[in-house]
Amino acid sequence: MEKKITVLPGDGIGPEVVASAVRVLQVIGKRFNHTFHLGYATIGGAAIDQHNNPLPDETIDMCENSDAILLGAVGGPKWDQNPPELRPEKGLLRIRKHFDLFANLRPVKAFPSLLDASPLKREVAENVDLMIVRELTGGVYFGEPRMRTENGAIDTTVYSKAEVERIVENAFELARLRGGKLCSVDKANVLETSRLWREVVEEKKKDYPDVRVEHNLVDSVAMKLITNPGHYDVVVTENMFGDILSDEASVITGSLGVLPSASIRGDNFGLYEPVHGSAPEIAGQGVANPAATILSVAMMLQYSFGLKEEAAEIERAVSAVFDDGYFTADLARDGGRTLSTNEWTDKVINEIDTSF
Ligand code: NAI
Ligand code: MG
To answer: What's the pTM value of the predicted model, to 2 decimals?
Structure first.
């Protein structure tokens, strides 16, 4: 298989963790006989410095001509005082919107060797393997009117039926590929958009007789996600609920450094990035944990290229390196060895390709 990937290293530790992920991608290509053509472009602070624009046209053009995007992270103190249009995160919002990446996938999977990093009891966290599917381009973050009034303020939650249908369909497809279980989260006892959401799920359910569906209210899920996270497989919800629940779910495994994400749309195109930010205080030291970005590459292989075996091999290798007792500084623990970003990446690569 031959694929074109646009690489956007970004700021802070972004370039370091992306370099690691690209090395792993190349080794997977070699082992499974795929060719990945990489093109590099700028986004965020790096793009502001070079082009006075957090998402330059040439970056968009390169992405348009690619099969997928790999992104590090953006932002840092250098740009914190910039006006809104020249803020690094503007580049992120614009790229998601430009490519209509309406489905944000955030898997949360416990690594057995990292369980002591979780704030939850071992027996609660150990079987967690869930995926939050968050609607990313609609809802209250984009709804109009949005304004200050004489004595208050207004935000508006808007969803068209088509917007709900496409994200729900996406979640059903994922549930079918995973455990066959879908939890739809809403606030249908209060919100009209939630009643629409629930109706759409009920309608779509007929096309997926192999998927078991439950409807849950968001406040109840907020509790159950930490008391019984093992209950969940695929969780689908609207933008704001998903924003909050996905951050809540991300603490289950206890390590920001191992959480990947994908932002996709109906076709195979997608943007893949770690959940964490640019960690400016450790940038340039070679100590960042590259696991989240490496696992984001695994998501790219699976969701954009349909390469399931290759994706599983990356996940296996990452898990095996943890099991062997190798960690980056953020996960340093008794009995383990602390490696630099590059040394830890070497371990993953050796795990994948034993012919070196
Ligand atoms: P952050 O995720 O960058 O860092 C939070 C904490 O986790 C820090 O202590 C950091 O050192 C640590 N950390 C994060 N990733 C790590 C890794 N791979 N290895 C080792 N340690 C890691 O979030 P923070 O500090 O709130 O934001 C820093 C900058 O990143 C800000 O400019 C923020 O705007 C930006 N940011 C960008 C995001 C993105 O590009 N998607 C997401 C979140 C924040
Ligand atoms: Mg958030």
So the answer is: 0.95
